[in-house]
Amino acid sequence: MSAVYLDHNATTPLRPEAREALLEALELGPLNASSAHGAGRAARALLDEARERVAGALGAGEEEILFTSGGTEALNLAVAGTVGRKEGKGPVAASAVEHPAVLAACERYAGTTQIVGVLEDGAVRVDELPREADLVAIQAANSETGTVQDLPAVRAALPDSPLLVDAVQALGKIPIDLDGWGADLAGFSAHKVGGPAGVGVLVRRPGRGLEPLLVGGGQEEGLRAGTEGVAAIHAASIAIQLAVEELEEAARHAAELCELLWSELRAAIPGVLCNGRPPGSPGRLPNTLNVALPEGDGRVLVTRLDLMGLQASAGSACSSGSLEPSPVLAAMGQERDRARRGLRLSCGRTTTHSDIHKAVEILRESQA
Predict the structure, then answer these.
(1) Arithmetic mean of pLDDT, 62-88
(2) What are the DSSP E strand ranges found in the chain?
(3) Per CATH, the architecture of 16-245 is what?
(4) Of 132, 168, 261, 270, which one's alpha carbon is 20 to 30 angstroms from that of 74?
C-alpha cells in the first residue's frame, strides 16, 4: 500500500504540465539568457515569457518580478536588501509566527527586531505593530496552522513603513491581492504549487529600492547575480499560472477534505484538539489542519506515522530537526506539553477522500 501524503505545505508533487514544460525546455539545449548567440536568445525568450506569465498570475508588472532560488532567498533578499539601503542597521518588525526564513534574516541583517505578538488563533496583534520601522514582515498565511492574516488591517496600521508579505503558503490556496494587502514586497515559491524546487519569486512594487544579496552579474535587474535556471523557471511559471487559474476549484476541494478530516478525527480520537482556527471557520487556509493528539510527541509521532503509512509533519519542514516545541504554537500561548503534541496535516491537489479515511484510521491506531 502506498503512503498517504498529507504534507503538501512542505512541498507538492510536480504537476504533469510543469514536468512537460521542464523537459521541453531542457531539450532546447544550453540555456543561458545572458548569452548573445541563438541559444542565448532562445533562453531569454523563455525567461521573458515566464516573467510575463508570473506577473499576470500575481497581478504585478513584469518589471516587478525577480526570480530567485526559492522562497527563502526571496524573503532574505527582501529583508537584507531593504535594511542594507539604510546607513547603519535600522529597526524592523516581524510577527512571532513568521517563517524562520524571515525571522533569521531579521536577526542577521537588522539592527533591532521587534517581535509582534499574536492571539490564541494566530492572528497578529495589530495594536502591537510599530508606527515606524525600516521594514515590517507579516505573512499572508501560516504554514503550520493555516491562519490567514488580515493584511489590509495591518497595512492601515503602518502609515510609513514598508510591508513585506511572505505569501509562500497563500499561493494557490487564497486569492493573491498585492494591492489590497498593501504589500511593498512579497515572496513566493514554485514547489508549493506543483512547480520544481529551486525557483522562488520576489515581487518588488514600484519605487521599492533594494540592495542585492548576490553580486557579480547583472541578472534580474542587477539584484540577483547568477545564471538563471531558465528551464526550471519556465516550468515554475506554468505551475504558478495554473495554481491561480484553478484556485476556486482547488480551494473547494481542499476545504471539503480538510473538514472531512477534522470531522472523522473527532469521531475516531476523543480528546483531539485543533490548533488555530478549525476547518469551516473564516480566515484560514482551506487545506491545513493542525491538531494536538492525546498521546505522543508530535516530532516523534511523525516517524511512527511514516512507518505506518502516513506522511505528515510537526511543523515547518525548515525547522523539522528541532526537538523543541513549535515556536508558532508557543507564540499562540499554548503550554509546552500541548505544543509538543502538535501535528500538521495538509491536503493538496492530489489528495483524495480515500486518503482522508486511511489517514484517520492510521492516526487512530497510533493512539492505541
Answers:
(1) 91
(2) 4-5, 65-68, 91-95, 112-116, 135-137, 163-166, 185-189, 200-204, 273-274, 288-292, 310-311, 342-346
(3) 3-Layer(aba) Sandwich (3.40)
(4) 132
